[in-house]
Amino acid sequence: MSVVPKSWMPKAAMKRIVCHWTAGTYKASDLDRKRYHILIESDGNLVQGIHSIADNVSTSDHQYAAHTHLLNTGSIGISVCCMAEARERPFDAGRRPRSSPRPEPRRLVVKRGDTLFALAARHLGNGSRWSELLQAAGTPFDEASARGLAPGDVLLIPARPGSDSPDVQITGRANYAFWSHRLGLDLVADPDLTFQDPSIAARILVQGMRDGTFRAPHKLARHVNEERTDFYNAREVINADKARVDRGHTQDRGTRIARIAERYLSGME
What's the mean pLDDT in 159-176? Predict the structure, then answer.
């Protein structure tokens, strides 16, 4: 859970907190930062606005965060980054809803030798989850329909709810071709597999960091091994931006990512 830095909270006589959504994307824009004191992005990161909370003690100088019509004086403005193109009446959550809708299931054509158990193991990570696969009409399989599975049949693989961002991001046709060859899949023809199938994303993540294919020759074992756990410099495996301080943040990327990794590690111990 993110905590608002103490430096963002000046000693000021404020009367209320006003909470909004930005009606934008899941990231804070420059305009959002002009209007609000604190913004919450989709991954939980907090972004500081341009104006200090103290600027809204009085608005007579016109230098303040103008987040709410006729209610800016004495008000702290906090907003969740979401709801682009939302409409109030009739209600429409728009392109960036506060809670991402469940993605559409993926269609799959059964090939010779396929079984529901094997398909569930391949696409859902566990063959015992075969009952989660759906027939083309969207109905579950029972034992009779499972036994009648034949090549050419169409079934639906439920997609995971959650973020509209993939677990792993690879860019460029050459990289998709590289991972297609390595994994024995055609990611060039069907790049959405990296988003729709968590097992594929996991294989790319693990192999890429282990073997240094993301940023040769950087390998994860150089930073995380039996002798050391250096999550800060492990960022080099993915990108050379560990020292970058993003707008609205007080810590660089390497430190922020390291803190997340340390929390995950602590939870597994």
Answer: 68
pLDDT surpasses 60 at 233: yes
pTM passes above 0.85? no
> Number of folded domains in the chain?
3
Are both 254 and 177 inside the same structural domain? yes
**DSSP, res 112:** T
Is the domain of 185 the same as that of 129? no
Tokens of 210: 């282990």
Question: What pLDDT does residue 188 have?
Answer: 84
**Closest by CA position to 249, among listed 77, 49, 36:** 49
Backbone φ/ψ region at 235: left (φ over 0), alpha (ψ -120 to 50), beta: alpha
Domain containing residue 119: 106-157
Is residue 191's pLDDT more than 80? no
Say if residue 214 is in the same domain as residue 190: yes
From CA 47, how far away is CA 29, in angstroms rounded?
10
Backbone CA torsion sign across 21, 23, 24, 28: negative
